[in-house]
Every structure is written in C-alpha cells, then in structure tokens.
Design a protein that fits this description.
Distance between the termini: 60 Å
Subcellular location: Cell membrane
GO molecular function: ABC-type oligopeptide transporter activity; ATP binding; ATP hydrolysis activity
Bound molecules: adenosine-5'-triphosphate
Strand content: 5-15%
Number of helices: 20
Helix content: 55-70%
Membrane topology: Multi-pass membrane protein
Number of domains: 2
Largest sheet: 6 strands, mixed
Shape: elongated
CATH topology of the largest domain: ABC transporter transmembrane region fold
Domain ABC transmembrane type-1: 16-298
CATH architecture of the largest domain: Up-down Bundle
Number of strands: 12
Structural class: alpha/beta
Keywords: ATP-binding, Cell membrane, Membrane, Nucleotide-binding, Transmembrane, Transmembrane helix, Transport
Radius of gyration: 36 Å
Length: 581
C-alpha cells in the first residue's frame, strides 16, 4: 500500500492544503463553546443585549469561516483522491496490458475487474476521508481537552477520566471489527464475482434452465455475506450506546462538579456549558475517528489487493531476447527458411501437472496452408497460440522465418500474424473501427476487400450505414456467424504473412465455409494459413494436415496420405460421413 501512495506525488499541494484547511476549520470550532460561555456569563447575566448581538455575530462569523474552510478542504481532498485514483487506475490498467496469457490465466479476469472498480472506489473514499479527518479529529480531541483545562482544572478532570474510557471502548470495538470488515470484503468479492459470472453467462444459464441452482448458489453466498455483516453491525452498534453512557455519566459528573464549583464562585454557568460542549465535541470526533480507521483499514486491504496486481511481474516482456547464435536468435544458415517451424516444441501450462503439447516437430513453407485437426482437448489451440507467442514453449522452440519467436519484439512478431480466435470477439464501435485493428490507416477499399474474402460483404447489405454500422458491446447485435466472418476480415486487413484461423468457421454453414476456403486459396498475396478445425471438410485441401492426439503429433501429411496412413484421421473422416462437403 505504501508504494501506492507514491502516486500522491502528483497531488502534493492538494494533499497538504486539504488537511490544513480542515485543521483551520477545527480551530474555529474550538472557539465556539468559549463564545457561548461569554454570551451566557456576560450578555445574559448582565442583560447586555448589544454584547449578545455582537457575540452572535462572532458565532456566525466563526460558523461561516468554518464552512468556508471545510468546503475548501473538501475541494482539495476530493481533487487529490480522485486524481490519485485516476493515476493509479491508469497505472494498473497499463500494467495489466503487459500481462501474458499465462499471467491472465493465473490472476483471473474477474478479480482483476473487481480490483479496477470497487477496490479503486474504496481506496478513493479512504484517501478522501483520511485527508480530511486523520489530523482534524485528534486535534479537536486534544484541543477540546486543553481548552477544558484552561477553563477550570478541577472540573476538567472529568475529561482526563472520560476520554481514556471512551478511547478504550471505541478502539476495542474497532479492534474487534477490523478483521470482521476484512471478512466482509472477501465475501463481498465472492458475491461480486458470482454476479459477474452469472451475468456474462446469462444466456447459457437460461438455455440450461439453471436459474434455480444459480439463485440457490447466490443465496448461499449472499447469506454468508449478510450474516458476517450483521454480526459486525451488532458489535459496531454497541459503539453509540456505550459511548453515550460514558459521556452522560461524565456530563452528570461535570454538572455536579460544576454546580459545586459555581457555588464556590470559581466557575461560571457559561463555563459549565462550554465544558459540556467540549465533551460533546470530543465524543463526536472519537466516533468519527473510529469510523475513519475502519474505512482506512478497508481501503488499505483494497489498496494491498491493487498493489498485488502492480507487483505481479509480467512473465513475458514485449522485447526480444539478445541475439546470439546459441539461442536461435540469429538465422542459422541463411538461405530459404520455412515460414513457421516447430522444433521439438513442448508446452506445459503454468500450474498444470502434464504437458499439453509434447515434442511437436514440423514446418511449413511460405504460402502453404496447414490444417490442424484432432479431438477436443488434443492441443490444437495450444499449438497455434505458440506462433504469436501467446504461450511460450516450455522446451524446444517455434520459429518464424527461421528465427525463434522468443527473439522477436512482440509487436514485430504479431504484426506478421493475423489471428482469428475460437471465440469471436468484437468491440463496441463501428464495423470500420473494428476492422482497422491491424492497420489503422487501412482504406475502405482494403476493408471491403478483406470482408469479401471473409464472406462478410453480405453483412453490410443488411445493415444501415455500411462500414459505419455500430456494433454493440460484445457484438450483441450480430449473429454468431456474422461475428466470426468479421473477425476473419479483421485478421485479413493489412495482408498478414501468417493467418491463423482457430476453429473460426464453426458457426458458418458448409457452403459459406467452402467459399471462404476458396477465397483464402485465391488471396492475391502470399500468406501462410493455419486452419484449426474439427471438420475434415475445412482442412482436406490443405497442403499439410497435422493430426493431434492427446497433445502429441499423431501424423502429418495430405488428406489422401493420411487416409492411408493415419488411423485417427481416417476415423475422424469416417465419423463425419466420410464425404467431402
Ligand atoms: N490456459 C490454459 N491453462 C491450463 N491448461 C490449458 C489452458 N488452455 C488449454 N489447456 C489445456 O491444454 C489442453 C489442450 O487444450 P486446447 O485448447 O489446446 O485443445 P483443443 O484441441 O484446441 O480443444 P478444442 O477443440 O476443444 O478447442 C487441454 O487439456 C486443456 O485443458
């Protein structure tokens, strides 16, 4: 959390002025009981109306000055806390952008969202309160005590007893409540992530009629949160009755002692009222301070969670490894190189016990089409994800143009590759915005050409605005097939040297899929194409087909060769009717 506070350096002035104005407000507040005492002792006792009016004017002046200081303090505190969180949010967001797929798998998207949203809000609230109250409350407590002693030492002795007792009660309750508040925060996190998961998968849940189970699961978590909140609430609710009992006993004592001292003539009635007011000020400030500490504790817990994100070192840097002939960062023997080559490449996901891919060795020439086929979970996506270095080989290597992918700067490597992921994801914005991701200055002609190859031109025909048609968040105003074709078009813009289609035609009908494959074969430039598919029809015309079985390469060859030599391929082919689509 301490490290986070370095972001306050951009708001030094505000972080000093905020508390300072709050202190000024407190000083003015401390004079109010004295003025009241004067009104009673001089104005009322002697029936001196002008004096009373004058003192009322002073009271109003004190009030207005206090208000002005308070508003100014609020302004600076808000500016500092909002600005601080803005910088912090920017830093965390930028840091998350440097996370590799492995880091994202490990950190978990859902909790990252909670940290970027509710945790940030909590930190902002905590900082705002701390800037305003952290110095003010102790000053008021201390100042009120000093003022009480300057009025009358004997009568003020009640403060010397009451304040420690009040402090013990307040801080004991706080001591018990703080761990409970942390528990509340953890349970709240669970409720939030269940809500998020539920809302993102709401269509699937409805399709499977899982609403009841989900409500039951949610109720369980909600109940757990409520029960810990209730328990915490019950304990913290003791704060007011207990402190008021102490304060009222102190007031009785004060009035009794005051009465005795007033009788002696060494204390005036106004001074007794002033002492009473100081007692109330102290109580209010102690309660505010206790609440402040609770809020700060929650904020520190949230700040630490944010810090943990910043502390996570990205496992992959965007940079390249140093060029050295040993590690394959220098092209070995000049001449013509395969476009992509897997050399005994293995992949073990972080935390996984077994390899997901073992000893993958094959290569392909520029312009070739490579089909990847295999059962579910056989490692097809894992294999193509190693080309753009989404996941790095745990042993062996993957080369592009004869150079190990680990030796490339990530942007240089990824610029060569047009990737279409299994899940078609589009972003809020126009079709044009979405298509320009690989090439910002692409002309409309280039975009339309890519859409034509991706068999996506007909989407424009049915939509108002053509390329300016607005896509809603997650592309929810498009069908699954339309989204897939647009993601293929997006990958084609900028003429990538390598095009990877990871099961990205699954929502297309056979005829459209066939037209897409034909268009890809007729690309007016040389592109090496990887097609991952469960359908033999999608890959049967590929120059090479890699058959995967449980993370291992079962065979490689053309369709006809594999039908003769690879039992697994033949089985897949026959299970799909054994005919071309
Ligand atoms: N991010 C990940 N973290 C850990 N394990 C993973 C991850 N992604 C995939 N795996 C595991 O790696 C293996 C291969 O998965 P992969 O997604 O590559 O298979 P696939 O052949 O593409 O499957 P499908 O056809 O179902 O998409 C599976 O056992 C899977 O559980």
């Amino acid at each position: 959390m301490k490290k986070l506070l370095t972001y306050l350096k951009y708001y030094k002035k505000e972080s000093i002025l905020g508390p300072l104005f709050k202190l000024l407000e407190a000083v003015f507040e401390l004079f109010v009981p004295i003025v009241m005492a004067k009104i009673i002792d001089i104005g009322i006792t002697h029936g001196d109306r002008p004096y009373i009016y004058k003192m009322i004017a002073v009271l109003i002046g004190l009030g207005l000055a206090g208000l002005l200081f308070s508003v100014t303090a609020q302004y600076f505190a808000a500016k500092a806390s909002v600005g601080f969180v803005k910088k912090l949010r920017h830093a965390v967001f930028s840091h998350i952008q440097s996370f590799s797929f492995t880091d994202l798998d490990e950190a978990g998207t859902s909790t990252l969202i909670t940290r970027m949203t509710s945790d940030m809000n909590q930190v902002q609230t905590g900082l705002n309160l701390a800037l305003r109250l952290l110095l003010r409350s102790p000053l008021v407590v201390f100042g009120a005590m000093v003022m009480a002693f300057t009025i009358n030492v004997r009568a003020a002795l009640v403060f010397a007893v009451a304040i420690p007792v009040l402090s013990v009660i307040v801080f004991f309750i706080m001591y018990v409540c703080i761990p409970l508040y942390k528990k509340v925060q953890i349970r709240l996190d669970t409720v939030l992530s269940t809500t998020r998961e539920n809302l993102t998968g709401v269509r699937v849940l409805r399709a499977f009629c899982k609403e009841r189970e989900e409500i039951k699961k949610f109720d369980g978590e909600n109940e757990a949160l409520t029960s810990v909140q209730k328990y915490t609430g019950r304990i913290s609710a003791l704060m007011n009755p207990l402190t008021y009992v102490v304060i009222n006993l102190a007031v009785i004592w004060l009035i009794y002692t005051g009465a005795v001292v007033v009788n002696n003539g060494s204390l005036t009635q106004g001074e007794v009222v002033a002492l009473y007011n100081y007692m109330t000020q102290i109580l209010v400030e102690l309660i505010k301070f206790a609440n402040l500490i609770i809020t700060i504790t929650k904020s520190i817990a949230c700040g630490n969670r944010i810090q943990a994100v910043l502390d996570r070192k990205p496992t992959q840097t965007g940079g390249a490894k140093a060029a050295d002939s040993e590690n394959g960062c220098v092209r070995q023997n000049g001449g013509r190189q395969p476009k992509v080559a897997f050399e005994h490449a293995c992949l073990t996901y972080k935390g996984a016990r077994e390899e997901s891919l073992s000893d993958i060795t094959f290569s392909c020439e520029p312009g070739e089409t490579v089909g990847i086929i295999g059962g579910t979970g056989s490692g097809k996506s894992s294999l193509v994800n190693m080309i753009p270095r989404f996941y790095e080989a745990s042993s062996g290597r993957v080369c592009v143009d004869g150079i190990d992918v680990n030796c490339y700067n990530l942007p240089d490597l990824r610029e060569k590759i047009g990737m279409v992921m299994q899940k078609a994801i589009l972003f809020k914005g126009t079709i044009r915005d979405n298509l320009k991701w690989r090439k910002e200055d692409a002309t409309d002609e280039e975009l339309l050409c890519a859409m034509q190859t991706a068999q996506a031109s007909e989407i424009l025909a049915g939509k108002d605005g053509g390329l300016d048609y607005f896509i809603e968040q997650n592309g929810r105003n498009l069908s699954g097939g339309q989204k897939q074709r647009l993601t293929i078009a997006r990958a084609l813009v900028g003429r990538p040297e390598i095009l990877i289609l990871d099961d990205s035609a699954s929502a297309l009908d056979f005829a459209t899929d066939a037209r897409l494959r034909q268009a890809l074969r007729a690309l007016p430039y040389q592109a090496t194409v990887f097609i991952v598919s469960q359908r033999v029809s999608s890959i049967r015309h590929a120059d090479k087909i890699v058959v995967l079985d449980d993370g291992k390469m079962a065979a490689i060859g053309t369709h006809d060769e594999l039908l003769k030599t690879c039992g697994i391929y033949k089985e897949i082919f026959q299970s799909q009717g054994g005919v071309d689509a």
